[in-house]
Amino acid sequence: MGKIKILSLLFCILISNLVASSSAQNCSNYSFSRNAIFATCLSLPVLNSHLHWNYNPANGTVDLAFRHTGSETNQWVAYALNLAGSGMIGAQALVAVTSANGSVRAYTSPVTGYGTSLQPGPLSFDVPELTVERVNGVVVVYATLTLPRGNTSFNHVWQVGPVGTNGALGAHAMDSDNRNSLGVVDFSTTPTGSGDRNTTTSGDRNTTPSPSSPTPSTSTSQSCGNFAFSNNANYATCVSLAVLSSNLHWNYNPANGTVDLAFRHTGSETNQWVAYALNVGGRGMIGAQALVALITANGSVRAYTSPVTSYSTGLQPGGLSFDVPVITAERVNGDVMIYATVVLPSGMTSFNHVWQVGPVSNGAPVIHALGSDNRNSVGQVDFSTGLTSGGGSVGGSRLRRRNTHGVLNAVSWGVMMPMGAMAARYLKVFNVANPAWFYIHVTTQTSAYIVGVAGWVTGLKLGSDSAGVRYDTHRNIGITLFAIATLQVFALLLRPKPDNKYRFYWNIYHHSLGYSIIIMSIINVYEGLDILDPEKKWKNAYTGILISLGVITVISEAFTWYVVLKRKQENKRTHAGTNGANGHA
């Protein structure tokens, strides 16, 4: 029994030594195969990763080693700095690819979209040295970075994913660890220990901009479209919300149905919470899926998600009904910003939204005030069009161009073109209207063409300014309309005289193209209305105009046939009378 106890004690000592050795080499005590020594290290919170570095203030460079343990063959790992954002888009990545035979190669790759396959390419800053090794299942990427603009504090991202049998890099998993592998790092500061992260992750961002970071100016001068974010993020669309000194900025990504947004509340205070929420199934507070930023007494900010299920909610952290891969927050000069990437549910783009501000007591959110502004902080937003209601006005010129494009084309192709055709068909039946009907027809159609071309050009401009946003049916019909209408205009120059033998064929050509233009114009106006998704009254108004033109057409068509048939009968009687007189003679 004594030997068994001694053996058991020795086994326990051996196990504890192994654990201690493993933990001792978790970060700062790790021995690199090339005997490199780094002054600073971080044990990153997810994906079994660590970051080691030496900062060189004299030349603004950093020598770093990114280490991922438990690597496999046919796998890639990446570490990236993001100068302009907080997540994947815009990240400047150092990539290591482990092949099937265990060999490993390193290269740089700028990430420009969610569909990236991490193709090799130069970064926005210099990387004078980049190497990689794989030892005992540990991949280590060594690099020297020339820090951009002398900054030392950056958003950073790290990731792990598979490599296909053909050598192509596949998309990484979307598990919690993969979605939370981001934060902030300052290469000029030193963490207090291997477990004391000098970085923040999604759901807990407490960040202070470095002195070299741009500082936003006051909200009065930068209320919406021209606001300068401390992380240099740029958003295509912004809304100055009507109440509670709040603004909403976003980029819509139709390729993957996500929105990168920033909710900004100005004039914030310590011990305060702010929230922005989408309500997928209702309107107002109940059912809202909230992004929350909580400001503590010392001014630090914490971001998290919270589903609102009742009026007595305490905004407890919890998962939402849709994915939020990224959520962070910061407070700069009294402005609180919540940054988030939202995976839009069920392919939707239009939602009821809610925003709110309230106090914090004992570290927890408590009920907000019930003043007029707090009760009116609801509305609707469409991330694909920029349209809002009940929530303020949209900044920037894109929405104005969309509305201009819609009005020009609806009036020209959708109204003037049918009216011009009606003038040609129904006025010429009156002898007194000849040749006035012709000039009315030509003037109306030419004016419609000119206005329509202006609308077509604004559509081309919208397309070029909205990379990745495609409305193929609307676009293709528009191009076809322009081509056919241009042929019609030039056909006027080739119009044969009434007694020319080719006039019959020209009439067939002219009428066929004309009626085709009218049909396609009406279809495309409705396509455009579906894209703009304005208030229902606008579609009803256009439908009412078409119904009116249709009623006028039916009445005019019946009257035209009545006049034509009556004239034929008169001509027959006249012809018969003439023949009878000739026979009597």
Give a summary of the structure in a few sentences.
With 585 residues, the protein is of the alpha+beta class. It contains eight helices and 23 strands. The strands form four sheets. Strands 14, 15, 16, 19, 20, 21 and 22 form a seven-stranded antiparallel sheet that branches.
Helical residues, percent: 25-40%
Mean pLDDT: 80
In one word, what is the shape? elongated
Strand content: 25-35%
Q: How far is the N terminus from the C terminus?
A: 152 Å
- Indicate the low-confidence ranges by residue numbers: 1-26, 192-223, 391-397
Please give the radius of gyration in angstroms: 35 Å
Structural class: alpha+beta
List keywords for this structure.
single chain, 585 residues, alpha+beta, 7-stranded antiparallel beta sheet, disordered N terminus
Write up this protein.
There is one protein chain. The protein is 32% helix and 27% strand. The protein contains eight helices and 23 strands. The chain has helices at residues 2-24, 176-179, 372-375, 398-427, 436-465, 472-491, 503-532, 536-584, and strands at 40-43, 49-56, 61-68, 75-82, 91-98, 104-110, 129-135, 138-146, 153-162, 182-186, 237-240, 246-253, 258-265, 272-279, 289-295, 301-307, 326-332, 335-343, 350-361, 364-365, 378-382, 388-389, 393-395. The strands form four sheets. Strands 14, 15, 16, 19, 20, 21 and 22 form a seven-stranded antiparallel beta sheet that branches. Helix 4 (398-427) packs antiparallel against helix 7 and helix 6 runs antiparallel to helix 7. It is elongated. It starts with a helix and ends with a helix. It comes from Deinandra increscens subsp. villosa. Residues 1-24 form the signal peptide. Keywords: Electron transport, Membrane, Metal-binding, Signal, Transmembrane, Transmembrane helix, Transport.
